[in-house]
Amino acid sequence: MPPAISIKNLTKFYRNRFKALDNLQLDVAQGQFFGFLGPNGAGKTTTISVMTGLANYQQGEVQIFGKDVRRDYRQTRAMIGLVPQEFNFDPFLSAEQILIYEAGYFGVDRSEGKKRAEHWLKFFDLWEKRKHDYKRLSGGMKRRLLIARALMHDPAILILDEPTAGVDLELRYHLWSFLKELNSKGKTIFLTTHYIEEAEKLCTHIGVVHQGRVVAQDAIGAVIHRLHGDFVELALKTPVYEFPHQVGEVAVTILDGGKRLSFEEKPGMVNRVLQLLHGKGIEIEKVDVRRPKLEDAFLSLTAKSSGGGA
């Protein structure tokens, strides 16, 4: 059984010769809830654009359920439901029409499209707004409409690019619950997010991309356990705005606008950091020691691939 998504040696240049993707490798198994994490500009949205045929590429192989995204474009695109970052609705259509037209684009006849539109509009509490054009909808309603549109042709893979950006906490939790249920029924979900908590709550597996390359891919627990030892967090009485990104072989991360420092516990490391802080006249308010989290793994991986700290 082929993987849901298979990407090998994917390289993508833009016209200014900026290398957005650099021999990127990625495999997502069928039925996984996969989190694709990375800093801004790491290549997440470009990867999605390639998978969905919205961007060309210079080198590599991209397959959806064993089908090539170039050679078998119509087949692969029909297997994917895309929820983009930006609202890209037709401004001349109502919410209901947007869904019906989307179904028709993928070959669903109009009567069936109307049934599906009614189902999703009611499910996402948009039925009363069905005759409104999207500009009259709130930001949260627009997010729900994006997801409803992506599901109209019942795709095998649902790709969500920052789906909860800017939504309130209640809607975020509602969407989390819905996506987990959808995945439990066999839907492969590919998620990009800047909310590490979101990835921890939802995803079974993650890939961390940085500077166009995947620097780690595995089950979440396996990625976290690549970090050895506990983490030390120092709460500071006054913020520190400049601090070495690296002390010895250990990366030091500045958090909360300089109010906290975080680093992996190593022999003698605490003393070295305390000495550096003392030299700057910075006092310590609190010291915590904890087990590593996904956030630590993410910061460590992106720092290592940059050759410095986060």
What does this structure look like?
- By secondary structure, this protein is an alpha/beta fold.
- It has 2 domains: about 220 residues, Rossmann fold (3-Layer(aba) Sandwich), CATH 3.40.50; about 60 residues, 2-Layer Sandwich (Alpha-Beta Plaits), CATH 3.30.70.
- The chain is about 35% helix and about 25% strand.
- It has 10 helices and 15 strands.
- The chain has a 6-stranded mixed β-sheet with strand order 6-7-8-3-9-10, with helices on both faces. Strands 12-13-14-11-15 form a 5-stranded antiparallel β-sheet. Strands 2-1-4-5 form a 4-stranded antiparallel β-sheet.
- Strand 12 and strand 13 form a beta hairpin.
- Helix 3 packs across helix 4 and helix 3 runs parallel beside helix 5.
- The longest helix is centred in the middle third of the chain and has 16 residues.
- The radius of gyration is 22 Å and the shape is globular.
- It starts with a strand and ends with a helix.
- The mean pLDDT is about 90.
Q: Helicity level, as a percent range?
A: 25-40%
State the distance separating the first and last CA atoms.
39 Å
Q: Helix- and strand-based class? A: alpha/beta
* Silhouette: globular
The low-confidence runs, each spanning 5 or more residues with pLDDT under 50, are: none
Gyration radius over CA? 22 Å
Q: Would you identify the CATH H-level superfamily of the largest domain?
A: P-loop containing nucleotide triphosphate hydrolases
